[in-house]
Amino acid sequence: DRVLEMVDGVEVSPMLVTGDTENRGTEVHFMADPTIFGTVEYHYDILAKRMRELSFLNNGVRIRLTDLRSGKEDDFAFAGGVKGFVEYINKTKTNLHPTIFFATGEKDGVGVEVAMQWNDSYNENVLCFTNNIPQRDGGTHLTGLRAAMTRVINKYITDNEIAKKAKVETTGDDMREGLSCVLSVKVPEPKFSSQTKDKLVSSEVRAPVEEVVAKALEEFLLETPIDAKIICGKIVEAARARDAARKAREMTRRKGVLDGVGLPGKLADCQEKDPAKCEIYIVEGDSAGGSAKQGRDRKFQAILPLRGKVLNVEKARYDKLLSSEQIVTLVTALGCGIGKDDYNLDKLRYHRIIIMTDADVDGAHIRTLLLTFLYRQMPDMIERGYVYIAQPPLYKIKAGKDERYLKDDVELNAHMLRLALQGSELVPGENAAVISGDALGELARSYLLSRSVIDRLSRLYDPAALEAIMDGVAIDLSNEASTEASAKALHAALHDEALKNEVRVVPSYDPVREQRSLHVERTHHGNVRVSVIDQEFQHTADYQQLVATANTFTGLIGEGAVIKRGERSMAVSDFKSAMKWLLADAERNVSKQRYKG
Question: Which domains are delineated in the chain?
Answer without folding.
Answer: 2-76 (no CATH), 81-243 (3.30.230.10), 256-389 (3.40.50.670), 409-588 (3.30.300.370)
